[in-house]
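agent> fetching stored inputs for the S-adenosylmethionine docking request
agent> found them:
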Amino acid sequence: MVRAILENKEYDIVLAESSVTRLRSLITDRSNVNINIYKDEYLGRRLKVRMRAIQHKSPEVYLNFVERNPDEYKKLVSVLTINVTSFFRNKQTFRKISEIVVPVICQDKIERGEKKINVLCVGCATGEEPYSIAMIFLEQFQKAGKNLKLKVIGTDVDKKALFTAVKGVYSPDKVSKIPKRHLQKYFTVVKNGFQVTPGLKSSVIFLKKDVFTHRVYSRFDFIMCRNLLIYFLRSYQEDIQEGFYKQLLPGGFLVLGRTESLVGKGRQLFEAISISDRVYRKISK
Ligand SMILES: C[S@@+](CC[C@H](N)C(=O)[O-])C[C@H]1O[C@@H](n2cnc3c(N)ncnc32)[C@H](O)[C@@H]1O
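agent> prediction call returned; pasting tokens
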């Protein structure tokens, strides 16, 4: 399972299998991050990011340093949970969400005489993804002229990223992908950029949860989990996808990242609505 040697010619860092093993036990002993679900390649790459940042060439010396230095330990944990994201990331996927997922969910609620729509956004990082989804739903509510009620729950393990999400203030370059009319409607200009309006904010909440160990016990119409499962070992991906199946209401939608896919049992639990955009729908049994 493990690569014997992971090499980086650029900075000449050679990682032995034992370094990744040591990294795993260091994190297991000291934090509640479930390190076992991550692939070795991923852990190796992230370890090197920190080593390069502080110009350490020897993994063993670096890990000794981490053991003695709580500050560096925190930095290492935070690079393990990289949180690159953006508003409306992967335009094509968001097009499918606004053309198919959102209208179908809303129409279904209207036909049933129900009002509440629940969305779970797993690995939401600094909040751009859940706010993007919320804007699409709120626009659809207006189009349908119905008084539906939206709750989007964004979850992540990274406290610092969630702090930014809750604050809801983004720099001008971060909001550049937001359609102008949405920016004007759902953001106000503040000193350091653009702040999410109270109206948009009231539809979105953030919780610190590990996708593997802390499930959110609600039933959802739509779960989005992008660019997270890719870092996990296949067997964990399968368990998580089975968990999503249980958390979804009948006919609920699941959207994964463009480089991710259903694995193992997951393939029998969902039908593909758009394979290229990783949009799936729960098969009711
Ligand atoms: C690359 S970002 C993806 C952000 C967003 N979903 C997107 O695609 O734009 C991955 C996020 O997953 C979070 N993460 C990593 N491990 C996690 C875990 N075990 N449970 C929940 N979130 C996790 C990271 O902190 C990070 O914010």
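agent> quick read of the result: The chain has a mean pLDDT of 90.
agent> awaiting further instructions
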